[in-house]
Amino acid sequence: MTTFTIDSDDHIERITGNRKPDAGDHFSSLDELGQLTEPWPVPRLVRIWNSLPGATAVKRFTDRKTAVSRIWKALQNGDGNSPTKIKTRRMNAAARSNQATARAGTKKANVIRLLQRPNGATVAEIMRATDWQPHTVRGFISRALVHDLGLQVARFKREKGQPAYRLQRQKRD
Hints:
Layout: E1 3-6, E2 12-15, E3 25-27, H1 30-37, H2 42-51, H3 64-76, E4 84-86, H4 93-97, H5 107-116, H6 123-130, H7 134-148, E5 153-157, E6 163-167
Antiparallel strand pairs: 1-2, 1-3, 2-4, 5-6
């Protein structure tokens, strides 16, 4: 009989045979998983689903029952022959910043290139490069670059007092 454990960091481990489960919550059926996850917020279920290998990432589930059944089905489709630690793909902002941030030739790539210059870029320079309005430039920096990609963008004043933005160097751990 296969039993699964899930720890507080949402790492799932498959336990087969007579081996005793380590610390964490245990479940061995869809019903047990449903009971276990009942007090959990739905975003945690989304996080667990998105961390499963081969799972197509989702932003939300229509309901808790769908989330639990999809997670259970994905766990059942895995190789059950040996104890397996299911690796998660959770990434923090530092890990995301090491990845390619935009396809070449896109407006996002052009804005990032402008912001990487030592003198950064003003809103007017970004507007000329993208044909965007000022509020779109500021919203793009806030949402797409800072929030979604986890980049550190600094606002500063140039020598003549013009406000500008530039990418900060990412700290390596």
